[in-house]
Every structure is written in structure tokens, then in C-alpha cells.
Amino acid sequence: MRADQILHPTEAGLYCPPGDFYIDPVRPVPRALITHGHGDHARAGHGAVMATRQTLEIMAIRYGEDFTAHRQVADGVARIGGVQVSFHPAGHILGSAQIAVMPDKGPKIVVSGDYCRAPNPVCASYEPVPCDIFVTEATFGLPVFRHPDPLLEMTRLIASMAEFPERPHLIGAYALGKAQRVIALARQAGIDGPIAIHGALQRLSDYHVEQGIDLGPLVPATAKEVQAQLVIAPPSAFASAWVQRFSDPVIGFASGWMAVRARARQRGVELPLVISDHVDWPQVTQTITELAPEEVWITHGTEEGLMRWCELQGIASRPLRLVGYEDEPE
Which chain positions lie within coiled-coil regions (predicted)? Predict the structure, then answer.
């Protein structure tokens, strides 16, 4: 069986004909396999959803218990129609997984979803999965993107808090995964006191704690007087009246895109923190080198740079040009 007979792009997303399922479809389908809980990969309305237990529970928190008619927890190797599938840690956010698609005859394909190889205290570490075809993102698929150690970025935050003790530090971080990672990194870096969180982060942060992840003392950032110097909020909050309750705040933002200083200036970010839950250029090329697949498929991001690198390494590659995925939510 040829690779494109096992998995190929459609308007709804990656489709597997022998299994009659889609991976991370962008519209409702009868059967979906979901890599992780971010909204550009996990949508409500599918007839049946297979994902890790944590991803299913995150989807229920975000969309309600009736987000699908049928849930199936990914546990070990499962047969769906004419293929077997298995889920493996992606290191991106809590519950995130790569999906291996294994036909009885034909190449083994691994769909990585979004993945990260930097240590992440709030989720399982990335697990290399040998394969014939590797489907990768290329969010930061240019040599200029080389993310620093996240803990070093936290030392910059701590230094700023020490330099400006009277100014609240408001850090923008995506509500699922990034916010909890920033909190956990702050704890690792030595911030022991209360951290205030925007109300939009409360339920997902509570879920991380329920899963055994220690985020330390958290207080709501909804009171008129917030009793914490460090405040974590979703980026959307910075465009609302909520931010006006803080006097002379230091505005920070945690994202891989903060390596592009022009983006930081455009957003009025005084303290850009280069913390990403995606692979950078050294990590994506390292991963492909280690896996040594026969072919690389690229789902989204800077396709041309990674395709050129693959060509120089003698590895076949192709862009899938799937629509509906964000490079890294801001």
C-alpha cells in the first residue's frame, strides 16, 4: 500500500482511508484522532474521538461533556479498520501525543502534531518513534530560531521583579499548557510566593494540579487589589479593561515569537520571554536526523526552509499545506 493510500490531506484534515478516520480534523467528521487539546487541533462535534485520557478530559473542560458522541481512550496499540494506531508523548502540553499509523503492508507513518523536545515540567517528555514517514510541523522552521533555556528566561523575569519591586509583572501566556508551564518554571527558578492568575486560566490550572503537577500557591487576579507581583493572563486579556486595574505594570509575553524583537515592540512588550512549546530549528533537524525517515511531510509553518534542509540531507519531503492550524497562538 502506497503512503498516500494510507494517509493524505483533505479539506477536513489528514484522512486515513483504510481506517476511515481523520487526524486533527478542522471540521466535524464521523471519527477523529486528536493529538492534543489546543483549539486548532481539537474541535468539538465529531461523532467519535480517540485521544489520550488527558486530552479527552481537557476537551470536556473546554467544550462540555457532550463534545462528542463517543470517546475512546488511546491505550496501547489499537486496530481501526485496516491499520493499527498508537499514541506516544509529544512533549507539547499535558496529554499531547504523536500518532503512529501502521498498515498491515506499507510504510509506518508518525504524525507528530505539535511537539517539543525541551524539558517541560507540566507534561510527559517527547518520545522518538521510529518510522518510514515523519509528519512534522515547521512553526520555527528556519535556522534563525534557536530557543534559549526556558529557566534562563525565568532568571530574566526574576531580575526584572527585583529591579522593579513596586511594579506588577503581567505575563501573557496561552491558557492551556503555556500558562501552567510558565508557572511551573517560575517555581523551579525560585519564585515561592503567590502567583496571580486570570480567571480564564483557573479551571485548566486546577486540572493540572489534579493531575499531580505542583503549581504552588495561586490566587485570583480578579480582585480589585491583586496580592501578587507576578500575574499570568491569556494574551487576549491585555486588550481588555481588566489590565487597567494594574498601576504601571511590566508587560511580558511568553512565546517563541518573542525572539523576533519587532513582534515584541508591536505588542508593546517590555519583557519578552522566549519560551516555546514547539521545536526550534536545531530540535526539528535533530529529530529528523535521529529518526532517519525515508520521507518527511510538513503540516504547517515555514515549509520551504525545512524542505531545503531535507533536500541537502538526501531526504524526500513534501508540504501538506493543511489549513486551520496556528503556528503558535498569541
Answer: none
Residue 228, classed as helix, strand or coil, is coil
Decide if 325 is inside a domain.
Answer: no
Could you give the C-alpha distances from 75 to 41, 52, 207, 315, in angstroms and in order? 20, 7, 21, 32
Residue 204's Cβ-count burial label (10 Å; 0-12, 13-18, 19+) is: buried
Q: 222 and 160 in contact (C-beta within 8 Å)?
A: no
What is the residue-level pLDDT of the chain in tens, covering all 330 positions? Answer: 899 899 999 999 999 999 999 999 999 999 999 999 999 999 999 999 999 999 999 999 999 999 999 999 999 999 999 999 999 999 999 999 999 999 999 999 999 999 999 999 999 999 999 999 999 999 999 999 999 999 999 999 999 999 999 999 999 999 999 999 999 999 999 999 999 999 999 999 999 999 999 999 999 997 667 779 999 999 989 888 888 889 999 999 999 999 998 888 888 899 999 999 999 999 999 999 999 999 999 998 889 999 999 999 999 999 998 876 665 554
Read off the pTM: 0.94
Whether 129 and 181 share a structural domain: no
